[in-house]
Amino acid sequence: MQGEHHCPLPNLQPSGIKNDMKPAQTITLRIVNTLGLHARSAAQLAKVAGRAKGGVWIQKNGDRADATSLLDILTLACPQGTEITVSIDDEADLETLERMAELIRSGFGE
Amino acid sequence: MEDQESQEIILNGIGGSPGICIGKAYLVDKEGVDVVKKYIVRESFLSAEVGRFKTAVKKARESLRQIIDNTPEELRQHAQILETHMLLFKDKMLYDRTIEVIEKERVNAEWALKKVVSLVKPMFENMTNDYLKQRAEDITHVADRIMENLVGGDHVNIARIDKRVILVARDLSPAETSQIQLERIKGFVTNRGGRASHTSIIARTLEIPAVLGVGNATLKINNDDIIIVDGGAGTVVVNPTEQTLLATEERRGQYEIHKALMVRNSYLPAETKNGQRISVMGNIELPEEVVSLLDHGGDGIGLYRTEFQYLSRPDFPSENSLFENYKDVIDVMGHRPVTIRTLDINGDKAVNYIRDNQEPNPALGLRAIRYCLRKPDIFQTQLRAILRAAAYGNVRILLPLISGIEEVEQAFEQIDEAAETLEKQGVVYKRDIPVGVMIEVPSAAVTADILAEKADFFSIGTNDLIQYTLAIDRGNRHVAHLHQPLHPAILRLIKGTCDAAKANGIPTYMCGEMAAEPIFAPILLGLGVNELSMNPQTIPVVKNAIRSIDTTGIDGFMEEMMRLTTPNAIQDLLAHQFGSVVPRIGLSEQER
Description:
A: alpha+beta; globular; B: alpha/beta; TIM Barrel; 3 domains
């Protein structure tokens, strides 16, 4: 990892993929479960995001967290009702994006 | 005086446990892991250093996985937080960043980890949301586990200290104190804590000198400094001169002689000059302390704290292991009473694996009887173990932190249920034993007349009673001096409790620190407390004091005292009337 921790890891980028600034896909959602993004729900997201090929991000009010890091997600402090945007760098990770969105929409099964 | 190579410094604190010791200082870092050393790693060894870190993480994860797997099914929800810890081990903010620091700054893995943790933790500690704030604890836990594996063999963990040293720490949590092999420790010095803090109680129980609430001990004292701890005077001398060392040795000798004299008389009964008798019992936490209790002339166990068996292991203890523990104690005590207090966890004794219920104010939270009534499976396990052990001796059950009659009724139902289960299983047990209520919450003292109808005895826990009544955190050195047993409010609560007990024909015992101060003995006799319980080492001192008291006409003295309005006035009257009969070792040792 280089510089600040929000930068994607260069060695995690598959060769041949352009690292343009625009994320490939984004979904904006609202946190519905009562507890918000607490340790258990954030852990579920980080687990799913961890399987992605490229970078996966969660944005809230301009702050961006690495979705593969449970701690980073927690630092965003997202209680119930927060609007967040999930984005992926690599189109190959569309499935990851969809699964994360599903988790958030379903309130993490709480 | 000529210059010494190092300057003698005297630090003042609160005397936590009497006695004098001289030895080498051993500094313990805040999280119970030792002070981390920083060193530069050569370029060619950097990848090996990263490898060392990765191995440590791997080992830490494996051992945590084992703990999770060994957690019984019904307690799995407690293990949930440990699952989160599993994930944190490899979290980029910890794992990747530590590797990055090792490589970029060319430092050892321990230092890199410590640095990363000290950067990440404040991000959480500074949050406004309480839940997220407490995630800083999780980071500490995970980092500690990795650190333990990193420092490995040559590292002297707090649990594995094998030299006779004096521990110097910012603070020691009960969990940490329970890890220390105390026979290896000569004394304690801590920045925080007061006379009634857990560390102080443990130190007194094990007769280890301790000075607490020093404030800056960990800054002023370096590892391996020669220090003198005087637990009676509450002072720590760093780098003492030769004269100081000689004078200290002499005082230490006098103290030992004085103590030996006391102990020699400890087998005599605690009977006042005019023939009033009182039982003097011991408080214990570890089964091993029973020997010391009997050596010091204890008439029984007035308080057996049962948390230790829960603190010293990764999961909840089984009924059988609890039973064996209790029976060991009962076997040694024979016909003497053994008062087993049911589990008093959370509050200041947080058990590691139930840490996920972080509370902003644990002293007022889900602890003791409240916790047990909420977790009947855990309570039942302990109650069955107690009732089984009760068949072998003279056992009483003591219910902690009772605040109202409903809790007593529910606890009695639980005890009956445990007995029924044992009956069905055809196991040997005894239900017909005294069940008492601990009076430590002001509401319990105020409603003692109601509780007395149900309880078989009362036991006044003065530490918490004073803390809750006067709103004083006994561990906070800024207010520790306001922890006043002689406050009129406290005396009234104790009197009300004793009166209610007498009216209902049940006895009142006392197991708090107040019982251990010989100067208070006349008051407690005057109020009609039937039994005092204290750390075993104090038994001879208190017995000695009681034997020198004459309680003839004490009712008049009590009436006068109850009319006084301030702790100071009460103290003066007490000193005036009974000061001469109380040995000088009592309240302040600096007079010696």
